Amino acid sequence: MGILDIFRGKLTDPTACAGVHAGGDIVTTTVDAVVRWGRKSSIWPMPFGTACCAIEFMAMTASHYDIARFGAEVLRFSPRQADLMFVAGTIVDKEGPVLKTIYDQMPDPKWVVSMGVCASSGGFYRSYHVMQGIDEIIPVDVYVPGCPPSPESLIAAVMKIQERITKGEQAKRPQGEHRLGAPGDGAIDRRYRRAFWAKDDAERARQGLPPRGVVPLRVLPTGPDSESHHG
Amino acid sequence: MASATQTPPAPAEATSPIARALKDELGEGVLKVEEFRGDLAVTVSPQGWVRAATALKTLPELDFKLFLDLCAVDHLDDEGRPERFEVVLHVYSLSGKHHVRLKAALPEREPRLPTLTGVYRGANWFEREAWDLYGIVFEGHPNLTRILTHQDFVGHPMRKDYPTAQRHVLHEPQRWLLPVPAGSEHVVVNIGPSHPAMHGTFRVQALMDGETIVDAAAEIGYMHRNFEKMSEVRSYWQIIPYTDRLNYCSSFMNGHGWALAVEKLMGIHAPPRAEAVRVILSEFSRIMDHFVCIGTNVVDLGAITPFFYLFRVREEIYDLLEACCGARLTVSYVRIGGLAQDVPPDFSDRCRRLVESVRKYTDETDRLLTRNVIFARRFKDVGALGADEALDWGWVGPCLRGSGVPYDIRKDHPYSGYDQYDFDVPVGTVGDCYDRYLVRLEEIRQSLRIVEQAVARLPGGPVIVDDKRVALPPKAQVYSNIEALMNHFKLVYEGILAPAGEVYGYTEAANRELGYYIVSDGRKYPRRVKVRPPSFNIYQPYPEMIKGHLLADAVAIIGGLNIIAGELDR
Ligand code: SF4
Fold this sequence. Notes:
The structure holds two protein chains of two kinds. Chain A is of the alpha/beta class. Chain A folds into three domains: about 35 residues, no CATH class; about 140 residues, Rossmann fold, CATH 3.40.50; about 30 residues, no CATH class. Chain A contains eight helices and six strands. In chain A, the strands form two sheets. In chain A, strands 3-4-5-6 form a four-stranded parallel sheet. Chain A has a two-stranded antiparallel sheet with strand order 1-2. In chain A, α2 packs antiparallel against α6 and α3 packs across α6. By secondary structure, chain B is α+β, with helices and mostly antiparallel strands. Chain B has a five-stranded mixed sheet. Chain B has a three-stranded antiparallel sheet with strand order 8-9-10. A three-stranded antiparallel sheet of chain B has the order 13-14-15. Chains A and B meet through α3 and α4 of A and α6 and α9 of B. The complex binds iron/sulfur cluster. The site of iron/sulfur cluster (SF4) has 11 residues of chain A, from α3 and α5.
């Protein structure tokens, strides 16, 4: 099979790599399609591993799951040589500027996989030092749920990225920019709420009002004319 | 099941020689001596703080040389206490085989205490942490700056009146960690966080003279995700998944340690079958942890083959864990008082097969590495630390044993029935990277011995205590009888209500002593949970250790120390 067979649709999805077989050994297609096809099959990922998820990431690259089957085994620890970043693990506010710098250092075009719930949304760390999702500062292409995601779902993420590469899609803006620095749920401590309510109740009591939220029950007048109702 | 009756207020002053010796030394400075569940706690006045610590360390009959932990506790809204803060020190005596807890109460306004850095060198980072999280000022501390949170952070987040999730954004990271002398010809190299030569999220800045490191400083906190704050708004059960993520290379052991600490607080014991399964899975986790340590360490040195070998067998251990509880890495398999459910019927066979294959791969790795000239040259006499210094910094576990101190909690304070098993504690002689590697390799073999013995006499019976304060009733009963339903409801709704008191529970985790200091006030949530973070103590002398070495050695040393970000920064 010659190289041109690839464009004849034997190996790739013909709709993704639009090509016209002009007969003989000639195929006409777009440069874009060829480049994307090349990119897709030789992803160079960069692990940005910080926590537990990084261990499962290692498992994916090691012998059992073997990411080499998808042409993505050339792990680069330098962002300048990578086109796919795996953010594996919790990103805390202190790490934020570092992540941003490293993302900016990657050459375009670049893709980002947010691995695990911590990177995607802060996970179960709704607390004072944890970024509630890396998309507050960098664009994310694929979110992988799980704590940690199994290596299988990571491989699925790589395939999703391949899909996006063939379609020429790429996330451009941090989707959660508007949330940057917003407190996670639970910021409003119950203690605060209770203290606030107590103050409010006292204030209203001084004005002779019942506490907010108390539904005043209307007492029906009992008297001769109420009798007539039943009459 | 042991009874959970409250221990009567023992006249601890009279019985404990430690308390008596401290009394002799400080006189009126000793304010209170308590004993709860076998833990001795001595409260001293802030003025007597340094003297008490010095006496503990230097008096020959006390000999508390091993620094374990220092932390602060916030007692806001606790009517029984006149002072809001408390600073707590944990130390251990190798000769007396005894822990002691030293406490000092501090007022809400301007909490100040003299520093202990002159007594225990390891106290340095711990005091910075107490300042960072609680705002306690340690007078005379050489560098009292933020350590876990970032420099733009406002407030002291572990204080009870700080909202749990109030964040502050950092825009610019701290550029310089080191003072560079003006006109110096040396080059500053910044390594990490997220650097090709660094593991994960550590950061070291080194001042280089050619290839040699002249000066170095480390910064941590790039993974500070607030385990301790989260624990204060979670019930004892809900904390189990969080413990899995402390040292995620051996998740099971963290949960094991947590369960033991809470069981100590409650005064209960898990049934024998649960203990045996815990031991087996803990030892397999230890093996996994050592595998990751050795595997990634040699990857740093440029050898990738052992990594593939070791991860191959790690997958098999994962399979065992998955068969037991359905998860690979973050297992959440222990429960307070036992285990979540029984092991699968073919558990023993699986374990036996696994022992065989672990042994095979370990031998293979041994053959690949131990006598490999390149490996030996990179490791021998690199990063040596003497025993005394190691104790002063608070090293425990394989690293301390590499330095030649045969302290292993499984032997010295057996828990979960470790006293029934026959195993040896390997120690090194020099305390260099090579010794630490050899100790780890031998520990894998010893763990296999323990597993074999435990599997051979795995007892039958239930895997969780029959105690309605901690264990959910069986599902069948919940659906068929009202009392079980009520218990189920109460336990889920109210959580485990531990008695008021403080305990320090400790286990020999894969990479050293993992301790949990729990302060309970009898409510659903613990008032304070402090992890004695093993990696914190180990990482602290790292900048000192690499001074004078080549830059390439710095990489070899950090891999061998096995620092795990999850428990370093919590
Ligand atoms: S998602 Fe879960 S496993 Fe991954 S880093 Fe967060 S806590 Fe760890």
